[in-house]
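re: ur question from yesterday

yeah so i grabbed the chain u mentioned. its 122 aa long if i counted rite. heres the sequnce exactly as i have it in my notes:
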Amino acid sequence: RPKGEKVRCPRDGQIGAAYVDSIQGADNAGIATVMLSYTWGYRVGDIIDALVAFCDRAKVSPSRTYVWICCICINQHKVRGSSIAGETVPFDVFRAEFGGRVRGIQHVVALMAPWYEPFYLS
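ran it thru and got these structure tokens back, copy pasting raw so excuse formatting
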């Protein structure tokens, strides 16, 4: 991800940060209040439409609803580097990190599209 490529990661101090670490301002980033649960394969437009619909239904401001999305909140530079080095993350480590995020955020929105056969369930 080019946006975070030259940004220092606040968690490990290395160059190469998650996308979310490279953006600033209250309209762009903040402490997550919702976690998006989805699968790979959704189009960005579908994700945006779903999150806008969620904000409309919940009567919350889209610019102040901070959504934790794996692909922009996990440091993909670190993931890629580990993959190239042949390193794998043990499941217990992954479960502890991911589980901690879910418990900390407390609200999960599942993307279920298309309605008649959601990718999430297949």
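noticed a couple things. The chain has a mean pLDDT of 87. also The chain is about 35% helix and 5% strand.
anyway ttyl
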